[in-house]
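Hi F.,

I've been meaning to write this up properly since the lab meeting, where we talked about keeping a consistent format for the predictions we share between groups. The idea is simple: the sequence comes first, exactly as it goes in, then the structure tokens exactly as they come out, then a line or two of notes. No screenshots and no reformatting. I'm using this chain as the first example so we have something concrete to point to.
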Amino acid sequence: MSILDETGFVERLTFFNGQRLFASDLQGIEAFNREMRWLHNQSLHQPGIGRGLAVTGKRDDREVHVGPGYALDALGREIVLTRDQVEPVPPVDSEDDGQSVFFDLAVSYPDDGQLAEAETRDGICLPRGVVRLREEPILCWIRLKRDATGNLSPVDPLLRQQLKDGLRIALARAEVLQCRLRQDVSLAERRSARPSRQPYIACGGQSVSWTTDVVSDNVLSLTTDVDTSSAGFLTTPCYSVRLDGERVAFDDNHEIASFVLDGPPNVLQPSPAGFKLNVLLSIGQAPANAEGNPWDAWRAVWMGVE
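Output, unedited:
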């Protein structure tokens, strides 16, 4: 949680000669500078790897090596690894069907309770206390399974959400069989904290369920919601959309039974996760029954440029 979320205003600590300082006063200075730095990171960067954190692992290896580096999570917190680290390959044999098991190696920011004590000191008439914590990021293997669409996703729903929200940063993907790497680790899942200067373009399509309003005789207004969250846009892109499907229905004699003329699709309320689509239709001839409406089988095909 940032300063703005917590208080709605910023307070700068000041001191005067003769003031008695407490640990909370000095910790307040550190917290202020840290929160302002995190706010800067969160505002100007995206979750991902800033530099380093190289992962190497060859076929048949039983461990992977992670190099020093720097990353940012979605809250702007700095994830810093200062030395080479070795991570054993997860000790699993195979999936139930004998196929390889897939894992993502992810890194995350450590809470104070997860850090080792680097230095303690005696207090003045008070018990000994911690004055330094060794900054070490948390590395973990996240087991993956294929979902209904055939894509690999984390088995644990909490870890899946943390990866999606940018609280854990994926470094590499490993395919494991009989407790060793079946092939070299994949780095395709890595994401840079530096947004690309090039436009990001994504597209997709979906079947739609229309909400219908009657404008006038033989003129309808169709509205639906289009989901673009799969593209992973960070800001609202410029959308273009077309409706894919038949405009003409034929009878058993191959004669035109009905047809519609549709106007240009209108993108309303655009956001990074989707938009509302509206289109006007002019019905040339009423269909014989509701199931024959050509627009019931249309798909919304969209493209977004961020």
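Notes:
The chain has two domains: 45-181, 201-305.
Residues 201-305 form a domain with the Immunoglobulin-like fold (CATH 2.60.40).

If this format works for you, I'll send the rest the same way.

G.
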